[in-house]
Amino acid sequence: MRLLFITLAFMSSAVFAQDSKNPYVLEVDVSRVDKRIQVEASYRVPMSMCAAYGFLTDYEAAKNIPGILESKVISRAGNKVQVERLIQERILFIPIEIRSVVEYSENLNQSLDFYQISGNTKYYKGTWRLTNQGNMILFKYQSVFEPNSLMPNLVIEYFIENSIYRRFERMAENAYLYGQSQLLTCK
């Protein structure tokens, strides 16, 4: 009986340790380039390319990511989609709202290129790339933005760096759940 208890305790601690690892191989890097802040992130999710692309282009579902309060498609023409977003950041306990209209150029099952058309940041541009890695899809994100704030970029960079990992972690979790819901539709 004692041996059984020790074995179960060891096995449950091993399962707990496995769950606490980074299952999506999430990597996030925030750096400063002159007056702009660059964000690079990647994660891997077991899903089909069709489901991964569907996840990225479900613009209104972005509301499920911490900090994104609103996200709605305002126009669609060909492979161009304009999305209006309201994001809230907390920097030094001060809520900062960022409104923007971003235009996405969709490249079917491959990538999204985007840039800010209007909003209250000075500059925002980036890409999402999808790479098939067998039974996993690599999501790769790169963006550069320039805040329009009285706060020093160093302070903004610090707080973004500390909140952005959690956002990409949630994106990876949401991508996994989306992929599971698309098993019969996307093959």
UniProtKB/TrEMBL annotation:
- Leader sequence segment: 1-17
Q: Which InterPro entries match?
A: COQ10_START, START-like_dom_sf
Which keywords appear in this protein's UniProt record, sorted alphabetically? Answer: Signal
Coenzyme Q-binding protein COQ10 START domain location is: 45-166
Pfam families xrefs: Polyketide_cyc
Source organism's superkingdom? Answer: Bacteria
Q: What family does the Swiss-Prot or TrEMBL record give for this protein?
A: Belongs to the ribosome association toxin RatA family.
For this entry, the protein name equals Cyclase/dehydrase
